[in-house]
Amino acid sequence: MSEPEEELQEEQRESTKKKKKKKKKKMRKEKRSGRKKEEEEEEEEKREEEEQVEEEEEQSECVVLRGIFKLGKKSHDVLLTRTRLTWTPIMPETPTGEASTLEPGVLLLQDVLAVKVKRRRAAGQESGGAVLGVALFCCRRRGRRLEEDTLHLHNASAEHTHTWYNTLKELLTGFRSRPKYLKVFINPSSHKKEAVHIYREHVAPLFKMADIRTDITVTERKGHALSVMKECKLDEYDGVVCVGGDGSVAELCHALVLRAQLDADSPEKPVQPVLPLGIIPAGSTDVVSCSVHGVRDPVTAALHIVLGHQQQVDMCSFSSLGQLVRFGFSAMFGFGGRSLARAEKKRWMPSSRRREYALVKTLARLRPEDCQLSFLPVKKSNSVMFGHRDQDQDSDSGEPYEAESWTTNEGLYLSISIMSIPCLTTHAPQGLAPNTSVANGTASLIAVGNTSRSEFIKHLKRYSSSSGQFNFSFVEAHAVSAVKVRPRSLIGCSEEEEDEEEDESNNEGDSKITPIIQSEGAAFPWNIDGELVEITNEVLIRVHPRLITLYGEEVDEAEMPMSCSCI
Ligand SMILES: Nc1ncnc2c1ncn2[C@@H]1O[C@H](COP(=O)(O)OP(=O)(O)OP(=O)(O)O)[C@@H](O)[C@H]1O
Predict the structure, then answer these.
(1) Ligand 1 near 247 CB (within 6 A)
(2) Residue from 199, 222, 241, 252 to probe ligand 1 pocket by mutation (most atoms less than 8 Å from CB)
(3) Ligand 1 centroid to 247 CA: how many Å?
(4) Which atom of ligand 1 approaches the CA of 247 most closely?
(5) Atom of ligand 1 nearest to the CA of 220
(6) Which atom of ligand 1 is closest in space to residue 286's alpha carbon?
(7) In angstroms, what is the span from residue 507 Cα to ligand 1's centroid?
C-alpha cells in the first residue's frame, strides 16, 4: 500500500471513530434528557400526591364540632375533627393569676369502638331518662395489650348531646375495615374447656357494644368447622372468628383457603380468602394468636377485631405424593413430631402435665431421623430475608420468587422445623422462628443435626432466654420458599421401646392421630400446627406469601416470658 493510500485509510478510520463517538454522545444525551423528563414527571406526580395528602390532612383536621362538656368535674372546650377529639380545660382567671393544673387531652377516633348517649335512669328503668351527655368507648394501649376504656363527656342539653352522638357515629362508620357481622366458631374442648366462658365473658360484650352481629357455631367434633365453612353463605359476613387453640385456628385457616379455592374453581392453586380471620386465644400455647397480637389475651384479640386491624400473613401448604395434606403455618418433624405423638397418647392427663411428660420422655429417648432434606433457599441479598417484602413484589402465583436452586442434604436430624410465622409463645418470646416475620414471603427452616442430648437441651433452652439458639455447629437456619423432607428409614428404635409405645397405644386408644397418607411402610409423626399427622412418604412444604388475612398487627416479641420448668 502506498503512503497516500495509508493516510487515506487512517483518516477514514479516524472519521468513523469520531462518528461512533458522536453517536454515543448523542445517545447518552438523549438518554439523559429522557431520564430527566421521566424524573421531572415523577417529581411532578410526587408533588401532586403530597398536595393531595396535605389537602386531605387539612380537611381531616378541620373542626367538625366544637362545644363545652364537663370531663370529671371541670368544664372543657372540646373540639372534634374527622380524626380526633381534643379537650382543653376552661379555667376562669384567678386574681392571683395561677395557671391551670389540668392537662389538655386527645383521643384518636381510630381507637374509639363505640359511642352511646348517657342517661339518668332509675333502677329497673329500661328506656327514657334525662340526657347526661355522651360516652366514648375506646381502647388504650398498655405495651402489646389493648384495654377497654371510657371517656365521659357530660352536657345535660339533649340537642347538643344528640348532635355530637350522631356526628361521632357517622365518623365511626367511615372505618370500612371494621366488621358488622361475624361468623364465630367456638371449640368447647380446647385446653381447659374454657372457650365458651372466655367468649361470653370477654368477647361478646365488646362485640355487642360495637353493634357487631354474630352467628355462632359451637363445634361438636374435629372437622365440624371445616364442614360448616364448606357449606355456609360467606358473602353475608365481614369476617370469621375462631375461639380456641392452635388446632382450631389451623382448621379454620385451612377451611378458608379451601373454600376460596372452591369458589374460584381453582383446585390446584391456593386462593386468598376474601374474609379475614380473628383469633381469640383459648388454647394452651396459642402461637398464631401470640404472633399477631404479642400477648395471649382475649380482650386484646377482640379489640383488634372490633377496630378492624388487619394484616396479611404467609401460609404454607403441606402435601405428600401430590396430595394436599393441609394448609398451615408450621410443621415439625423429628423431636417436635415424636413429642406430640407421645403427648396425644396421654390425653387423659391435664394438658401442661401431658406436654411436660412427653417432652421429658422424648428427650430421654432422643433419637435422630435418617432423612433427605431438600430446600429452596431465598437469596441472601434479597431484602425479604429477615425483613418485610414490598407490596409490589407479590407473586400472584404464590410461587417462590428469587429462589436459588434446590439444595439437598442427607443425614441424621434430631429435629426439622419449617415455620412461615415467628411462632411467638410465652416460652419463646422472640419466637420459635425469630428469623422470619408474618409477611416476608419466606419460611424459616431450622434443621438440628445429630448431637448429644446435653447439647440439644442447651439449644432448646436458648429459645426461652434470648438469642443464640442457632450458634451451634449442628444447627442450620435458612430462609426458604420450599422444603422437601424424605424420611429414609426408622433407625435407632430399640425393640423394647417399640413394645412400650405399642402398649401405650393399646391401653389408651383415645389418641387424636390423623393418618392422612396411608401406606404399607412405617408412618412418621409430624406436628403440623400442634396437630398430630402421620405421613409415610416425602412431605413437600411450599410457602404462599400473604395467603390469609388475620385481625391483629405485626409484633416482634411476645409479652410475659415464662420459663419452662421441665428442661
Ligand atoms: N367439640 C369438640 N370435641 C373434640 N374436638 C374438637 C371439638 N371441636 C373441635 N375439635 C378439634 O379439637 C382440635 C384441637 O383443638 P384446639 O387446638 O382448639 O385445642 P387444644 O389442642 O386443647 O389447644 P392447643 O392446640 O393450644 O393445645 C382441633 O383439631 C379441632 O378441630
Answers:
(1) yes
(2) 222
(3) 6
(4) 17
(5) 1
(6) 26
(7) 22
Q: Which atom of ligand 1 is nearest to the CA of 222?
A: 31
> Is 65-90+104-119+129-173 a CATH 1.10.40.30 domain?
no
The cell for 298 is 382475649
**Best mutation site among 184, 185, 190 for ligand 1 pocket (most ligand atoms within 8 Å of CB):** 190
Best residue among 194, 228, 248 to mutate for probing ligand 1, ranked by most atoms within 8 Å of CB: 248
Do 65-90+104-119+129-173 and 177-308 share a fold?
Answer: no
Q: Compute, in angstroms, the gap from residue 48 CA to the centroid of ligand 1.
A: 53
Neighbour count for residue 185 (Cβ, 10 Å): 27
pLDDT per position in the chain (567 positions), as tens?
A: 444 455 545 655 665 566 666 666 666 666 666 667 777 888 888 888 877 777 666 666 789 999 999 998 889 999 999 999 999 998 776 666 666 666 889 999 999 999 999 999 888 888 888 999 999 999 999 988 999 999 999 999 999 999 999 999 999 999 999 999 999 999 999 888 899 999 999 999 999 999 999 999 999 999 999 999 999 999 999 999 999 999 999 999 999 999 999 999 998 899 999 999 999 999 888 889 988 998 899 999 999 999 999 999 999 999 999 999 999 999 999 999 999 999 988 878 887 788 889 999 999 999 999 999 999 999 754 434 334 344 334 444 444 455 579 999 999 999 999 999 988 877 787 888 888 888 889 999 999 999 999 999 989 888 877 678 888 899 999 999 999 999 986 444 443 444 454 444 444 433 444 434 434 457 899 999 989 999 989 999 999 999 999 999 877 666 654 444 444
Q: Does the Cβ of 531 fall within 6 Å of ligand 1?
A: yes
Q: Residue 179 Cα, ligand 1 centroid: separation in angstroms?
A: 26
What is the 221 CA–ligand 1 centroid distance (Å)?
A: 8
CATH class of 177-308: alpha beta
Q: What is the CATH number of domain 314-545?
A: 2.60.200.40
Measure the CA–CA gap between 237 and 148, rounded to whole angstroms: 25
| C-alpha neighbours within 13 Å on the C-beta side of residue 72 | 9
481 — alpha (psi -120 to 50), left (phi > 0) or beta? alpha
Maximal CA-CA distance, the chain: 123
Q: Is 116 exposed, middle or buried (0-12, 13-18, 19+ CB in 10 A)?
A: middle
Q: Domain ranges for the chain, please list them.
A: 65-90+104-119+129-173, 177-308, 314-545
CB of 189 within 6 A of ligand 1: the answer is yes
Q: In 174-271, which residue ranges form alpha helices assigned H by DSSP?
A: 195-198, 204-209, 224-231, 246-263
Transcribe 386-443 into DSSP letters. Answer: SSPPPGGG--TT----SB---EEEEEEEEEEEEESS----SSSTT-SSTT--TTSS-E
Q: Which atom belonging to ligand 1 lies closest to the Cα atom of 187?
A: 8
Of 119, 156, 113, 150, which Cα lies nearest the Cα of 135?
A: 150
ipTM: 0.96
